[in-house]
Design brief:
heterodimer, A: 76% helix, B: mainly alpha, two-stranded antiparallel ribbon, globular
């Protein structure tokens, strides 16, 4: 049982982190936008579930109570009872949550990237980090949005699944969503749009010279990336059946996705899968064996701190020794006419 | 009056941090995301000296200064220098400082737990305010932090404008390639800037517990204010950092205080929102910060031509 639990835990975290890392790969890996505020979009996804969908349900069902924290508790038990009778309702709420999260993520992402109109890469990264950090602090300390550090309860959308199967059902659901996102992102990035993003990353001026508006391209890209990351945030909240603002800390949702991306290799989705997989195995093992590590090594402190040090050092090692990651990005595949033209050119130059 | 005093103290500390951030940005070109945690390192140095050897935090400032400088040099030589040698991109270097920040957070957290076990006192959260005393009718922290600022500015001025090393330093900040041709060792100036940045951060960190409660993760929260101060100042000028630090520190404390009168004390949570708004306004009005405004260039230009 314990091993099964471990496996499901790995699968769940793998799906959640894969979605976030793929979204970051679009923005940083392909488009070269240093989004140091990834955590914001994930938090928005959680707000969509805990703050928006919760309130919609409270209004629809006419549940009364003091403040969102208490009312959401009543809501949870009422809706859970309804879902266990009517599975379709649960699935409906699930789809509604993911849609609203994606929509809110897209809008936030589009607004969030506007400072990039005027800023250079390093200024931009700082500004994005600052925006994300400030909104994190606000939603953590203001308990009327999503209950802040107390958190709000969320209905269990899979309440119709018997208790012992619930974990398995969520793991399968997570893998399903992650697979859909993967196929979508893969399809999208092998299209001309993906090549345009890479061109923007390599040389903005060339893209401008071809008549593309850089800012519009950036807005589209970050809106898309944020929508995807928000889906991950919403799914994570639905799985844990509560939203606690303090779990959306910068380390977990900005730094770790960057680590997975750089570990696997930027700019290619297979690399991202490998990076997320290796990271999640280490992370889940560290969480599960936290107390064993603490007692066998006789640590006088929490194993979480050790985790931070370990992942920080890992990041530095990757940056220094393997900046391309485990799987290197492949050059853009050329279409036959361009290949032909290049060959002709090569012949001409060698003939001379 | 107490609010104004608190605002001045906070601004003083913010100035120390943003000068440190700016000076390493000028010499190495990396915005250092670990600046906040470097300050919290200083807080823990003072806390340990107080708990273990009963040294008052004011007396431990020199030790903080030296140890913080050591930390700065360690970060530069172990992490950034090898990467700069490999011609890493700016974003890569920024991610590296984020990693350093995480490592520092882990080390400080582990140290805080260990210290609690050693001394048998709770050190997860701490504050020095009860140890403060009155000096000439004012809180000692106001006097000490202002004195530290004046001393450091004076020393920096002497160093930069009155010594040969200072000339070399300024030259390598303005144009590293040219300075190198003229025989200046740019490496020394980088080492020096990281020493100074680390030591100023640690000193600010030693004084910060007199104003707010410290936990190992405090660095991650104050980094927003530090960056806001440096960017408002222009991220490329020490004077800019000085002015930016006061603008952000004052507005963060005073705006939230005056808003809390009509709107209630819950508004006090939004102090960081104020710095974010000031930061965004500054970026829209003048993307190069206060030091990049045209008036200054005109003024300095006029001065240099008239003399």
């Amino acid at each position: 049982m314990a091993q099964e639990y471990l496996l499901l835990d790995i699968i769940l975290w793998f799906s959640i982190y894969l979605i976030v890392a793929l979204s970051l790969n679009i923005e940083y890996g392909y488009a070269g936008i240093p989004n140091f505020g990834r955590a914001l979009a994930v938090l928005i996804g959680a707000i969509a579930v805990g703050g928006v969908v919760n309130r919609i349900l409270i209004l629809l069902l006419g549940i009364e109570g003091r403040g969102i924290i208490e009312t959401s508790g009543t809501l949870k038990s009422t809706v859970n009872a309804m879902i266990s009778q009517n599975p379709l309702l649960g699935l409906g709420i699930l789809v509604l949550c993911l849609l609203i999260a994606a929509l809110m993520g897209a809008v936030t992402g589009a607004l969030f990237i506007l400072p990039s109109a005027k800023l250079r890469q390093d200024y931009l990264a700082i500004t994005l980090l600052a925006i994300s950090e400030v909104l994190f602090l606000v939603s953590n300390y203001n308990t009327s949005i999503i209950g802040g550090y107390y958190g709000v309860s969320i209905p269990d959308v899979l309440a119709f699944v018997p208790g012992e199967r619930r974990f398995l059902a969520f793991a399968l659901l997570g893998v399903g969503i992650a697979l859909l996102v993967y196929l979508f992102v893969e399809r999208l990035l092998t299209s001309p749009y993906g090549r345009l993003l890479k061109a923007m990353r390599e040389n903005e001026d060339v893209v401008k010279a071809f008549g593309k508006n850089i800012l519009v391209l950036r807005i589209k890209t970050v809106a898309l990336g944020s929508a995807i990351a928000a889906i991950a945030g919403a799914f994570y909240s639905l799985y844990s059946v509560n939203v606690i603002a303090s779990t959306f800390f910068r380390v977990d949702w900005t730094f770790f996705p960057f680590l997975m991306l750089l570990l696997g290799g930027m700019g290619n989705n297979r690399g991202v899968v490998l990076g997320v997989f290796s990271f999640v195995i280490v992370k889940v093992l560290l969480i599960v064996y936290k107390f064993e590590i603490k007692s066998t090594l006789h640590l006088p402190f929490e194993a979480t701190w050790l985790e931070y040090i370990l992942f920080g050092v890992l990041m530095l090692l990757i940056l220094y020794y393997k900046p391309d990651g485990l799987i290197k990005e492949k050059p853009v595949t050329l279409t036959p006419p361009i290949k032909h033209a290049l060959k002709q050119k090569a012949k001409e130059t060698s003939g001379r | 009056m107490a609010v104004l005093e608190g605002a001045v103290v906070y601004s003083n500390l913010l100035v120390l941090l943003s000068i440190g951030l700016t000076i390493t940005y000028i010499t190495t070109g990396v915005p250092n995301f670990a600046q906040g945690s470097m300050a919290i390192f200083g807080s823990f140095v003072s806390l340990s000296l107080w708990l273990l050897f009963n040294i008052h935090p004011y007396y431990s400032l020199p030790i903080s200064f030296i140890l913080g400088g050591g930390l700065g040099i360690t970060i530069y030589t172990l992490v950034l220098k090898p990467m700069i040698r490999k011609e890493a991109m700016v974003v890569t270097l920024m991610i590296a400082t984020l990693a350093v920040d995480l490592i520092l957070l882990g080390v400080l957290g582990a140290y805080s737990d260990t210290l609690a076990e050693l001394t048998g006192k709770g050190t997860k959260k701490f504050i020095f305010t009860p140890m403060d005393f009155k000096f000439a009718g004012l809180d000692a922290i106001l006097v000490v932090s202002s004195a530290v600022i004046l001393l450091i500015l004076f020393a920096l001025f002497l160093l930069l404008y009155k010594t040969k090393f200072g000339i070399a330093l300024r030259a390598s900040m303005e144009n590293p390639a040219l300075a190198e041709i003229m025989g200046v060792n740019v490496e020394y100036t980088r080492l020096f800037s990281w020493f100074l940045s680390g030591s100023l951060a640690a000193v600010a960190g030693s004084l910060l517990p007199f104003r707010q409660e410290i936990v190992p993760a405090t660095g991650a929260i104050i980094i927003v204010s530090i960056f806001a101060a440096s960017i408002v100042g222009g991220l490329g000028s020490i004077y800019g950092a000085l002015i930016g630090g006061y603008i952000i520190g004052m507005s963060e404390s005073l705006v939230t205080f005056y808003l809390s009168k009509p709107l209630g004390p819950s508004i006090l949570l939004y102090s960081k929102v104020v710095s974010l708004i000031v930061l965004i306004i500054a970026l829209i009005v003048s993307p190069k910060g206060i030091a990049g405004l045209d008036i200054w260039r005109k003024m300095t230009w006029r001065r240099s031509t008239s003399s």
